[in-house]
Amino acid sequence: MERAEAWAAGSSPGALEPEEPGGLPWFHDQVVPAGSSSSRVIVHVDLDCFYAQVEMISHPELKGKPLGVQQKYLVVTCNYEARELGVKKLMNVRDAKEKCPQLVLVNGEDLTRYREMSYKVTEMVEKRLEQLQSDEPSALTVSGHVYGNQPINLHDILHIRLLIGSQIAAEMREAMYNQLGLTGCAGVASNKLLAKLVSGIFKPNQQTLLLPESSQDLIHSLNHIKEMPGIGYKTTKRLEALGISSVRDLQTFSSKILEKELGISVAQRIQKLSFGEDNSPVTPSGPPQSFSEEDSFKKCSSEVEAKNKIEELLASLLNRVCQDGRKPHTIRLIIRRYSSEKHCSRESRQCAIPSHIIQKLGIGNYDVMTPMVDVLMKLFRNMVNVKMPFHLTLLSVCFCNLKALNTAKKGTIDYYLTPSLSTTSRSGKHSFKMKDIHMED
DNA sequence: TGGGGTTAT
DNA sequence: ATAACCC
Asked: What is the 3-state secondary structure (H, E, C) of A356-425?
């Protein structure tokens, strides 16, 4: 559910990339020079029930009590006191109250404060990372647990590097607690998959190091392929139809047939995952590529009703985009129609935002509302035949195709000097990157 | 199942 | 524009 996560990757010390222009600092992962065969040390940090932690920081009187965060009729996450009393993530409010009558619920539909805390975590991790370069060497002692209690071989350079990773993870968690009051788990391993899997071995607020020799034990400790990150709902169903349910089933299944069934890309990727192999890079997530606001409800069946809801969503979005500083060039409207089926999919329509509206975006926000709503209602009528009865259960507005602040025109010097407008100006130059913090749940 | 996000096709 | 993935 919700949590923030951070990845650090390194193979050799590298210089830090300067910040993005005009925004918060964002992390990037290390780019390994072509041809070098270096192994990686990945630190995966996983905050415990992030929303619930933020609520307990905002309302200290809630500490120690079983606390759930509610969105509509769901308890989307809860603190560990509540978990001990049987509350699960994404549990129905009714079921949760039944299991745990003392459960305290706070509404978590407005993500603003979670988002703010997430930004603080991002900034903190970045500062910590800069400082790391000048840190004193420390004793060669592992921090936290070692998966399977495997002994560390101090003559093995891979062990040593992972061990240092465990110290970095501990420092990160310490800093997060001291500066922001947040606790979390960490996993240290040689790739993202393994680091993520091992981070959950000792919970809450502990960390675990995985040595390469134990990686097969770790992946075979999964009871089902659906527990493998990267294998989601749909893929699990298709694999089950092929008789594949355990990690070993997937390892030993014919590659040829798997490729025919799932396509070469998915097949090869997930079969590698089943062996604990994952060469996917730590990707710079950078500032968000889109902003959206959504609301779900039992029923919306008139155009006026829809317009009111869209206006609300848009107003919040305009505030957020204004704070971000960049300007969206595309707007999208998403709906979910009522259906009795389980997996009701969404439909969307998008269009370019007219340039005269984009220009007004930074300054007066109310001039922008009316023309923007007009655009959105055109998209709405494109999807929904308003002359016929309809029943919607969700509306969402999304701003995307965000471009950096200025209005540089093609052919001008300014155009070529604006990083986001020219094509690949930044690739390959940075030597140290990190995935940013992102919110979940 | 909420209220978000990302990448691939 | 949709479909898959993540939480």
From this structure: HHHHHCCCCCHHHHHHHHHHHHHHHHHHCCCCCCCCEEEEEEEEEEEECCCCCCCCCHHHHHCCCCCCCC
